[in-house]
Specification:
2,3-Dihydroxybiphenyl 1,2-Dioxygenase, domain 1; 8 strands; MMCE/EMCE_epimerase; coiled coil; 8-stranded mixed sheet; Glyas_Bleomycin-R_OHBP_Dase; VOC_core; alpha+beta; metal-binding
């Protein structure tokens, strides 16, 4: 199955300062900014676009339970994950299973933009957090 880069997720401590950098230095446009208090997310997210390439800025809203807070504590701010878009998430998950690649089932969800997503187990990806996602309601 073909995969294309969907976005890069970046863990940040100061969302407003980072948005300012992306807009004023990198020339990005903010597509959306929202807060998710869903268990396993607990972050404020800003979606930045630079000529069609997307970066999601992820700032923890709960320093105790947010996975972004844990990531920053363990590894510091910076690239958190790389997301690859697939044609059909269920088919892609079957391919992973056939190859013996595990996913983190507790991360499966649909975000406010209709993107279905799940994270692959970093133990099977040489330590990189990889997201697979699709947009089943997208008419592209």
């Amino acid at each position: 199955m073909e995969k294309t880069l969907d976005h890069i997720g970046v863990a940040v401590r100061q969302l407003d300062e980072t948005i300012n950098f992306y807009e004023n230095i990198l020339g990005a446009t903010m597509i959306d900014r929202y807060r998710s208090e869903a268990p396993g997310v607990e972050s404020e997210i800003a979606i930045m676009d630079i000529h069609g390439d997307r970066t999601e800025l992820l700032c923890p809203t709960n320093n105790t339970t947010s996975p972004i807070a844990r990531f920053i504590k363990q590894k510091g701010k910076g690239v958190h994950h790389i997301a690859y878009r697939v044609d059909d998430l269920e088919d892609a998950l079957q391919e992973l299973k056939d190859e013996g690649i595990r996913v983190m089932e507790d991360t499966r969800r649909t975000n406010k933009h209709g993107r279905r997503l799940i994270y692959l187990n970093p133990a099977d990806t040489e330590g990189t957090i990889i997201e697979y996602c699709d947009y089943p309601n997208d008419q592209e």
